[in-house]
Design goal:
With about 350 residues, the protein is of the alpha/beta class. The chain folds into two domains: about 200 residues, Isopropylmalate Dehydrogenase, CATH 3.40.718.10; about 140 residues, Isopropylmalate Dehydrogenase (3-Layer(aba) Sandwich), CATH 3.40.718. It is about 40% helix and about 20% strand. A ten-stranded mixed β-sheet has the order 2-1-3-12-11-4-5-10-8-9, with helices on both faces. It has a two-stranded antiparallel ribbon with strand order 6-7. A two-stranded parallel sheet has the order 13-14. A hairpin with a 2-residue loop joins strand 6 and strand 7. The structure holds nicotinamide-adenine-dinucleotide (NAD), 3-isopropylmalic acid and manganese (II) ion. Its EC number is 1.1.1.85.
Amino acid sequence: MSKKVVLLPGDGIGAEVVREAEKIIAHLSDHYGIGIETETHLVGGASLDAHDIPVKDEVVEACKSADAVLLGAVGGPKWDDYPSDKRPEKALLRLRKDLGLFNNLRPVTVFSSLKDASPLRPEVVDGVDLLVVRELTGGLYFGEPKEITEVNGEETGVDTMRYSVTEIERITRAAFDAARKRRGKVTSVDKANILATSQLWRKTVTRIAAEYPDVELEHMLVDNCAMQLIRNPSGFDVILTENMFGDILSDEAAMLTGSIGMLPSASLGDGTGMYEPVHGSAPDIAGKDIANPLATLASVALMFRFSLGHEKAASDIEEAISAVLNAGYNCKDMSRHARHVLSTSEMGDKILSVIIEKQDG
Ligand code: NAD
Ligand code: IPM
Ligand code: MN
C-alpha cells in the first residue's frame, strides 16, 4: 500500500512550517509502513517568479491524483501589486475550486494549560472547543461579475455574493454530520436581516436541520456572532457559515487560543482533501525561524485522519502537541505564556522526539 501526498510550501513562512511537517510525515510513514511518497510543487508567488502563473495546470493535476495535499501559505508584499489574475492567492482559490473543496473545517481548541495565553481572560477561554465549518467555493470569492468597471465615468468595483440551494445544502449536511460527532449543536451564522443569500441560507439550513432532530440549531447574525465569540466562546459547538464570514470569524476565533499560529484546517470535498494552517505567509516574520509550526502539524494530523485513513498517526501528532504545550514549550507568538520558547525547527524536532519517545515507550 502506498499513498501520495503533494506538498505545496508556497511563500514566506509557508516553506518553513511545511519543512517541519515533512519530518513528521516521513517518520509516521516509516513507523506505520504507510509508504507515503511526497512530491513538492511551486504555488503562489514562488510559482509566479518561476513560471509567471500562480499555479500550473500540471500542479493542479498532480493534486487531483494525490491522496492528500498539504499547503503552507501563499502571498506577500512582492506580489501585492500584481493584476488580479496574477496574484499568489489565485493559486489557492483555483485549487479549492478545481478540487471541489467546499467544506472547510477549522477546529479551535483551547488547551487548558494555555488558557493564560489568550488576550482574553482565562475563565472566558478555558474549555473552548468549537469547529468553524466554512463554505469554501461560493459566495463573494467566486461570484460573477467580479470586476472593476467604469460606471457613470467613475471606476467602480463589483463583487457578487451568490449561493445556490445545492451549495447551501451540502455544507449544511457537513456541519450537522460534524455536530453529531461532537456536542450536537449548530450555530448557523448569516446576515439574514439584509442579504438575499443569507435569507436563502437560513431557509435551507432550517429545512435540512429537520433531518437531524438530535442536533440543536440556532441562527445568529454575523455581527452578533463576532461579539459572542469574545463574550462567551464556550457557548459554541459548530459554527456553520458562508465563505467570507467564515474567513473573518476563524481568524477572530484563533485568538481564543492565543495565536493564529495554532489553528489548523482541512478542506474537503468529493476528491482529494487539502490541509493548511489558517494563517498566511506572515511576511513580517518570514526567514527568521520563529513561525509557529503547530497549526501546520495539527493540519497534518487532520490529513492522516480524513484523507489517509490513519487515526493512530493523527492521534500521535495531536497527543504530542498537547504534551509539548502542557510541558510549557511554545514559540515566540505564544511567549507570554511559554516557559521555554522554541524556534520553528526546534518545535518540529520537539514534536517529533515526543512522538518517537511515546512510540518506543
Ligand atoms: P498572516 O496570517 O500571514 O499574518 C498575520 C499576523 O499573524 C502577522 O503578524 C504574522 O506574523 C502572524 N502569524 C501568522 N502566522 C503565524 C505563525 N505560524 N507563527 C507566528 N505568527 C504568525 O496574515 P496577513 O499578514 O494578513 O497576510 C500575509 C499574506 O498572506 C498576504 O499576502 C495574504 O494574502 C496571505 N494569506 C495567505 C493565506 C493562505 O495561503 N492560506 C492565508 C491568509 C493570508
Ligand atoms: C484563508 C486565507 C484565504 C481566504 C486567502 C489567502 C485567499 O485568508 O485561507 O483564510 O481568504 O480564504
Ligand atoms: Mn483567512
